[in-house]
Design goal:
Elements: E1 2-3, H1 18-31, H2 33-44, E2 52-53, H3 55-62, H4 67-85, E3 92-96, E4 99-107, E5 110-114, H5 123-136, E6 140-144, H6 155-163, E7 168-170, H7 174-183, E8 193-195, H8 200-209, E9 214-215, E10 223-228, H9 234-245, E11 252-257, H10 260-273, E12 282-285, H11 289-299, E13 303-307, H12 311-314, E14 323-326, H13 331-336, E15 362-369, H14 375-387, H15 391-400
Parallel strand pairs: 1-12, 5-6, 5-8, 6-7, 8-9, 10-11, 10-13, 11-12, 13-14
Antiparallel strand pairs: 2-7, 3-4, 4-15
Helix pairs in contact: 1-2, 1-7, 1-8, 2-7, 3-6, 4-5, 7-8, 9-10, 14-15
């Protein structure tokens, strides 16, 4: 399993599912709620009494939650909120040549969160998507998630929804949930932006509706790159690899190290333990730490773990990563409670964007006020307008200022 070339991700190929997803989206657009009931029964194998979750159902389901889980959710909510509160941008401005200017940060009015379902429920995803939206000041937060086999909302999701003061919750999943949030139905509110992870059908649906609504991104399987030196504990590295592999068989896992001893111990452990959840991984022997950093930046992973002595220095050499675990910090802590988000870019998108923050729910509105603009700025504007053939643009400036 030791490799010497740059590992390759499995491509996110939508081609096989696009026709099915297009059909689902069209059906939801045309038939609204009736399509949602039909598709929920078809794909989730359950009949629901209503698409919309009533306030009473939220409260009833939340009341069933074990007190230990309630306390855990409360603590994690506080931790995530504390992180995002440190990132809220101020309204900034200045002025030059007689013109004042700046940016007003305003929140998106209406967002939809998709929380995947299936074998398990994921209240951590609702927290990760919902808390920064709340901190950003989003007025209306909606969320959709598949119903459980009884046609109910999961108790932990219900509790988090109440904590976040969710406007409405919907018992729908898959591509049909994305279509409903994008276009609206009798029960589902059309939103301005959709955020949240999901399977290939969900990602294909987000791609197809992205001309109508904002989306956070098109994501693929979970990714983890670990840079480790001789100071790293092999057992901890081993469990970090196993933990991320728990997300599914397509998880992309890479260990970069220049330590022969560390590589030998981890490779031996992976082979001898034969955990069923880790089918594929890459161990790359590098010549030194600098080469490990270079390869990590090329890969631009979702999760990057810096399990090295001088991580506080190395972190400044990382340019492409969704989230970085420093030192002995397990990546799984970021998945749950450290504060940063676990909704992160995959498929090399970390080259150009990061994980979900308050900025995903804010928009910069720029302004200018020409109180007493200097003569040269007026003349420069008129010259360039005329050069570009926008003569009336130039005149509208000149007339205003007696030119």
């Amino acid at each position: 399993m030791i490799h010497h070339s740059l590992p390759q991700r499995r491509p996110n190929d939508f081609s096989n599912v696009i026709p099915t997803v297009k059909e689902i989206i069209q059906k939801v657009k045309e038939k609204g709620d009736s399509a949602l009931y039909e598709l929920t029964e078809k794909f989730d194998k359950v009949k629901v009494n209503s698409i919309k979750v009533s306030p009473k159902e939220l409260e009833d389901q939340a009341s069933r939650l074990d007190e230990k889980v309630v306390k855990a959710l409360d603590l994690i909510y506080d931790q995530i909120r504390a992180f995002h509160e440190t990132t809220v941008p101020p309204n900034i401005g200045g002025g030059l040549r007689g013109i004042s200017f700046g940016i007003l940060w305003k929140s998106i009015e209406r967002i939809g969160i998709y929380v995947p379902g299936g074998r398990h429920s994921y209240p951590s995803t609702l927290l990760m998507a919902g808390v920064p939206a709340e901190v950003a000041g989003v007025k209306e937060i909606y969320f959709a998630s598949p119903p459980n086999p009884k046609g109910e909302i999961d108790p932990a999701l219900a509790y988090v929804a109440l904590k976040l003061k969710i406007k409405e919750a919907y018992k729908i999943g898959g591509a049909q949930a994305i279509a409903a949030l994008a276009y609206g139905t009798e029960s589902v509110r059309k939103v301005d932006k959709i955020v949240g992870p999901g399977n290939i059908y969900v990602q294909a649906a987000k791609y197809l509706v992205s001309s109508e609504v904002g989306i956070d991104g098109i994501e693929g399987p979970t990714e983890l790159v670990i840079i480790a030196d001789e100071s790293a504990d092999p057992i901890n590295v081993y469990f970090d690899m196993l933990a991320q592999a728990e997300h599914g068989s397509n998880t992309f896992i890479v260990l970069l190290s220049h330590s022969d001893e560390l590589i030998s111990k981890i490779n031996e452990k992976l082979v001898s333990e034969n955990y069923s959840n880790i089918n594929d991984y890459y161990i790359i022997k590098t010549k030194d730490l600098e080469e490990s950093i270079q390869i990590a930046n090329q890969i631009a992973p979702e999760h990057l773990s810096l399990y090295v002595k001088n991580y506080d220095v190395v972190v400044n050499e990382i340019y492409n990563a969704g989230a970085i675990s420093l030192g002995n910090t397990p990546p799984a802590l970021i998945d749950y409670s450290a504060g940063p988000n676990h909704i992160l870019p995959t498929n090399e998108w970390a080259r150009i964007r990061g994980g979900v923050t308050v900025y995903d729910y804010l928009k910069p509105i720029m302004y200018a006020n020409s109180i007493e603009p200097y003569k040269e700025i007026i003349e420069a504007s008129m010259i360039l307008a005329n050069y570009e053939g926008f003569v009336i643009h130039g005149k509208s400036i000149g007339v205003r200022y007696g030119k």
